[in-house]
Design brief:
The complex is a heterodimer of chains A (518) and B (70). Chain A has a single domain, classed as Up-down Bundle (Sodium/glucose cotransporter). The longest helix of chain A is centred in the last third of the chain and has 39 residues. The termini of chain A are far apart. Chain A is mainly α. Chain B has one domain. The longest helix of chain B has 27 residues. Chain B starts with a helix and ends with a helix. The chains are: A mainly alpha (518), B mainly alpha (70). The interface between A and B is large, with 40 and 34 residues.
């Protein structure tokens, strides 16, 4: 980078990160529980009330990658990038209606993961394994992507602290951040990200507030910001004849992303760590505050267009290295005083560490409970199970680090795109399973496989660059998010085969009772 | 038994308004009426967040009065 390394910004940044690290270790003593038990280490003992859950879920779902990628998309593609707003609007009714039931049944039966629930409800080990593996595979690239946020910010500081190991350039700050993260996760479990999420969200809200106070003033108001965006980018592109065009892509992207979100293991962990079903409901009401913040963050893409940072020589190297993902750091460096840059950048880095921590804990829970205990050591003690989870969380994080260092960034992005298509295939057994046991486990398994195969095939025909696959329905071209169309196939297969299998099947077992869900 | 759950279910139907409007893209994919220079596309979708909060709040309150959830 050509711009000077700013001491004030770096001092503020380092001080905030040091404070957060300390907090991560102190968290082990908070709401003290026996960390030798999986639900204590991996779910914080299901003891988080409305306020802590609000911060935890917010810290969990609105990741640093979102903060970097959404404005980048607005900057590059314009209106189409705003789908993030209807997406985060749709998730709260879904959380409010379906997930208190999941909380209740998991609390009653001691389930720690979605796969636990599926195992109990459908009494089928293979289906539970499919759910566990889908969760693990879909989350790993997501963890790796969090590192992109950290990388961009560190580069924006103009810090060059890298080492060459076996021909690979390794960013030292990235490694340090991950070692710290791994250490406090190991000792404190979910309590660490829960506590740090409070700091993270405070920093992010402060940054957003500063953005809406400072930047529109500098750029001559919102009217001027929108006026400086090319008219073609301001709305969705008009649909060609015989096609629904960008509208159906926009709507299905919002819908598919929303349906997939709470199926991810890290969202599940956030929900299950609440202290009651009413905590989940109250959060569905209070959480949209984050949706407002995200809307404002998305507009930073347009603010960047209006400010002209894209063509300023001092940011050219950053844009060259990271493409549009450099929009947010460039805009902040351009418009904020140095100390505020330090606060905002710390917010982004901590905003990467919190979800990365929860994601690795969630995948570790899945591994320990649904793979290790289920298949390798059914009679393991609570302490052994918890120990395996702690070690698994280390391995998952190391995997993320190797991924981002050893492979091009585009791999993580492609896999995360596929992850969304894969995880949504667990919707029939997890979300519909909350309401009915009518679906047959073997039908669900076949539907899951059909959905994953079709969705992956659709993405492959697009060279894994996009997930908007054009369906042709009665002569009409319908661009549709592959997760939604493959889910539709999955649902159709699950329902039709269940009708067939249920004719031949005797009574199936189900360890949950109707009142467990209330 | 019969009246209460049905009323509860009706309240929950309010939430269907959210996907209905949010997913009807052609309705809001327009620049006018703009609000203080902000095109309709942007302010409508942002305002809809507030409407969603209100709808969930209404259902939550009705729900508490009648019982504990669907």
């Amino acid at each position: 980078m050509t711009h000077a390394l700013d001491r004030t910004a770096i001092a503020v940044f380092v001080a905030l990160l040091a404070a957060v690290t300390l907090l991560g270790f102190v968290a082990a003593r908070w709401k003290r529980g026996d960390l030798e038990k999986l639900h204590e280490w991996g779910l914080g003992g299901r003891r988080f009330g409305t306020v802590v859950s609000w911060f935890l879920l917010g810290g969990d779902l609105y990741t640093a990658y979102t903060f970097v990628a959404v404005p980048a998309l607005m900057f590059g593609a314009g209106a189409a990038g705003f789908f993030a707003v209807p997406y985060v609007t749709l998730i709260w009714p879904i959380l409010f209606v379906a997930f208190p039931r999941l909380w209740s049944v998991c609390h009653k039966r001691g389930y720690v993961t979605a796969a636990d629930f599926v195992r109990g409800r459908f009494q089928n080990r293979i289906l539970a394994l499919a759910v566990a593996l889908t969760g693990i595979v879909a989350t790993m690239p997501y963890i790796a992507l969090q590192l992109v946020g950290i990388e961009v910010v560190i580069a924006a500081f103009g810090l060059h602290l890298s080492a060459n190991v076996a021909g690979l350039t390794i960013q030292l700050p990235l490694v340090i951040a991950f070692v710290i993260l791994a250490a406090y996760d190991f000792t404190s479990g979910l309590r660490a990200p829960a506590m740090i999420a409070v700091v993270k969200d405070t920093l992010i809200y402060a940054t957003v507030l500063a953005v809406i106070i400072i930047i529109p003033g500098e750029l001559g108001g919102y009217g001027h910001i929108f006026a400086s965006v090319a008219p073609a980018k301001l709305l969705l592109p008009a649909a060609p004849a015989g096609s629904l065009g960008a509208s159906s892509a926009y709507a299905t992207l919002a819908l598919g992303s929303a349906l997939a979100l709470f199926l991810y293991p890290h969202s599940m962990t956030g929900i299950l760590s609440s202290s009651g079903r009413n905590v989940v409901k109250r959060n569905a009401i209070a959480m949209p505050a984050y949706a407002f913040a995200l809307g404002l963050i998305a507009l930073m893409g347009f603010m960047a267009i209006a400010s002209g940072v894209g063509s300023m020589p001092e940011y050219a190297a950053g844009f060259k290295a990271f493409g549009p993902n450099f929009v947010v750091p460039a805009l902040l460096l351009h418009s904020f005083p140095p100390w505020l840059v330090g606060v905002a950048f710390a917010g982004i880095v901590i905003g990467a560490l919190v979800p990365a921590a929860i994601m690795s804990i969630a995948t570790a829970n899945l591994f320990a409970r649904n793979i290790y205990k289920e298949y390798f050591n059914p009679r393991c003690s609570d302490a052994q199970e918890s120990r395996v989870a702690k070690i698994a969380s280390l391995i998952v994080k190391a995997g993320g680090l190797v991924f981002i260092i050893g492979l091009p960034q585009t791999y993580a992005i492609v896999l995360q795109l596929l992850g969304g298509i894969w995880i949504i295939q667990t919707l029939p057994c997890v979300m519909l399973g909350l309401y009915t046991r009518w679906l047959h486990p073997r039908a669900l398994l076949t539907g899951w496989l059909a959905g994953i195969a079709t969705g992956t095939w659709m993405a492959s025909t697009l060279s894994f660059k996009s997930a908007t696959f054009v369906l042709h329905i009665a002569g009409l071209a319908v661009p549709c998010y592959a997760a939604v169309s493959s889910l539709a196939l999955n649902l159709a297969v699950s329902v039709v085969l269940s009708a067939v299998f249920n004719v031949f099947a005797g009574t199936r077992r189900d360890e949950t009772l109707a009142e467990d869900y209330l | 038994m019969s009246g209460r759950p049905r009323r509860r279910a009706r309240a929950y139907h309010l939430l269907l308004l959210v996907p209905l409007l949010v997913l009807w893209v052609p309705f809001y994919d327009r620049a006018e009426p703009a609000l203080a220079g902000v095109p309709f596309f942007y302010w409508f979708q942002t305002a809809w967040i507030a409407v969603t909060v209100l709808l969930i709040l209404i259902v939550y309150v009705l729900d508490r009065r009648t019982g504990s959830g669907p």
